[in-house]
Structure formats: structure tokens, C-alpha cells
Design goal:
The chain has 275 residues and is of the alpha/beta class. The protein has 2 domains: 155 residues, D-Maltodextrin-Binding Protein, domain 2 (3-Layer(aba) Sandwich), CATH 3.40.190; 112 residues, D-Maltodextrin-Binding Protein, domain 2. The protein is 42% helix and 23% strand. The chain has 9 helices and 16 strands. A 5-stranded mixed sheet has the order 12-11-13-8-14, sandwiched between helices. It has a 3-stranded parallel sheet with strand order 4-1-5. The radius of gyration is 22 Å and the shape is globular.
């Protein structure tokens, strides 16, 4: 028995370095393919205020700046590939995209097929809620009831119809926090916003950054809907790379770390959030 264990250990000592070298070579090949092609193919969201939105024919936002800046760091051009959330993983696995910069939050489920960068933005679960449904609790400095300020606080309002994006990190959260409520799922951000405006849902659930961007850009959303954000739960937005491509991840992390050190990332966030 002892000799068998020693044999297995010897085999593993031989195999692991070979596997490690093979993975390193594959990662280097991926980077070299991008450089040989001369183009970094970036999967982006179709519309995500502050991070990425159309201004006429021009896309602008923090993640668009990240895409062009990282490509410049690698010495290549950029090809932007607008796509839906559920398409991201497939685009990486089939080689259609080299990186995801699409407001993608890190989850354990996604991490089975995607390698995530270090976070570059933190957000909280949030909701835009029909202001007419909010409890009128404040009289001067006195609250008769506990104020409703976060998404979790909405559980005190019975019978709400909530909308949540299919495949998002908030889909299981809403199902867990709001059992028995009517939950309507949508596939595109624009669909969820249209449902809210038509009254098909009374609360649009997304992350705080996205909903903040919507409110700032649309006066009717500021006047007619309450933004609830904050709370103890935090989501982090990261870049996504093909599974186990640590070389590209490390290069991106180095690039973003420099943006943070110089204050550039904060400046971009302020620029596109209107602060």
C-alpha cells in the first residue's frame, strides 16, 4: 500500500508541472492571438447608464473607457460587441469575445465558467418604486412607522408586483426575499423600464448604480419613483475572461489598479454619474 502511495505521489509531481506549463502556454497563446489579430473583442451590455449607453451613435460610459484603455495597454484596437446578459458566458467559451465589460457581478454560479477580475465597482441591490405606494410615515421629525429605504424594506409592503432581470444576480435574491409576491422577469433592461412606466410592475429591481443612472437622466423617474438602495448586501462588478485565463485577468487587474492609484477610475465614475 505504501509503495502505491509513493508511486501516485511521484506521478502527480510529474503531471502537475506539465499541466501548469500547458495552461500557461494556452494563456500566452490567447494573448498572442489578440495581438496578432490586432483587436480586443469586448462583450458589453446593450444599455447600462453610467457604465455604457448610447449618445447618438456614440457609446459612452465608464466600461467603454475601460475597454479602450485596456486595449491601448495591450497595444491593439477595440471591437465592441453589445449582447444580452445570458450570452456572455457562451461568447467567451466559443471565442467570440475576449473579455466581458458588461456590468457583470460576480457570483459562484458564474465563476464555474468565467474567470473574474478584481472588482472595479461595488453596488447594492436597489429598486425604483412607484412613489404612490410608499408609506407616508414622516410628520416633521417623527416617523410613525419605520421608513422604507432599502430593497429589503419593501417586504413590509404587501402585494407589490416586482420586475427583475432574467439571469441577473438579483433574480434569486428577489425570489428569496419576496416569497408569495408576483415577480415578473424581463430579458432586457429597456423592457423592465417600459414595464415600470406602463404600470405592469410597481418596483423595478436592479443594482444601485444602474437605477441611479436612470433617475439622473430622466426627470419623470425622479419625480414619480422612489429609489431604494443601500443595505448590508453588496454586489461587485468585475470584468470576465475565459475560464482559467489568469494571464489576461492579471493584466487587467494591473491596468485597473493603476487607474485607481491615479484617481482616473473615480474621475470617470463622477463624469458619467453627473456628480
Amino acid at each position: 500500500m505504501y509503495s502505491k502511495k509513493r508511486f501516485v505521489i511521484r506521478v502527480l509531481k510529474l503531471v502537475f508541472p506539465i499541466l501548469s506549463l500547458s495552461i500557461t502556454l494556452l494563456q500566452a497563446a490567447s494573448l498572442e492571438q489578440i495581438r496578432a489579430r490586432g483587436v480586443l473583442r469586448v462583450a458589453i451590455s446593450e444599455d447600462y447608464p453610467i457604465l455604457n449607453q448610447l449618445n447618438g451613435d456614440l457609446r459612452q460610459g465608464l466600461e467603454i473607457n475601460l475597454a479602450y484603455g485596456f486595449a491601448d495597454f495591450l497595444g491593439v484596437q477595440v471591437e465592441l460587441l453589445p449582447a444580452g446578459l445570458t450570452s456572455y458566458s457562451m461568447m467567451l467559451s466559443t471565442g467570440e469575445a475576449d473579455i466581458i465589460l458588461g456590468g457583470l457581478s460576480r457570483t459562484l454560479t458564474r465563476a464555474r465558467t468565467i474567470t473574474f477580475s478584481e472588482p472595479y465597482i461595488s453596488v447594492t441591490p436597489a429598486a425604483l418604486v412607484d412613489a404612490r405606494l410608499m408609506p407616508k410615515t414622516q410628520f416633521g421629525e417623527i416617523f410613525e412607522e419605520k421608513p422604507v429605504r432599502t430593497l429589503l424594506d419593501l417586504t413590509r409592503i404587501q402585494g407589490l408586483k416586482l420586475g427583475v432581470k432574467m439571469g441577473s444576480a438579483y433574480e434569486p435574491l428577489v425570489q428569496d426575499w419576496f416569497p408569495g409576491y408576483k415577480i415578473i422577469k424581463y430579458s432586457k433592461n429597456a423592457d423592465g423600464l417600459n414595464m415600470l412606466r406602463k404600470g405592469e410592475i410597481q418596483a423595478l429591481v436592479h443594482d444601485s448604480l444602474y437605477l441611479q443612472g436612470l433617475q439622473q437622466s430622466t426627470s419623470s423617474l425622479r419625480n414619480d419613483y422612489a429609489l431604494l438602495s443601500g443595505g448590508r448586501r453588496v454586489e461587485v462588478i468585475c470584468a470576465g475572461f475565459p475560464f482559467a485565463d489568469l494571464l489576461m485577468k492579471n493584466l487587467f487587474d494591473t491596468y485597473v489598479a493603476e487607474l485607481k492609484r491615479t484617481g482616473t477610475l473615480d474621475r470617470w465614475l463622477q463624469e458619467f454619474s453627473g456628480k
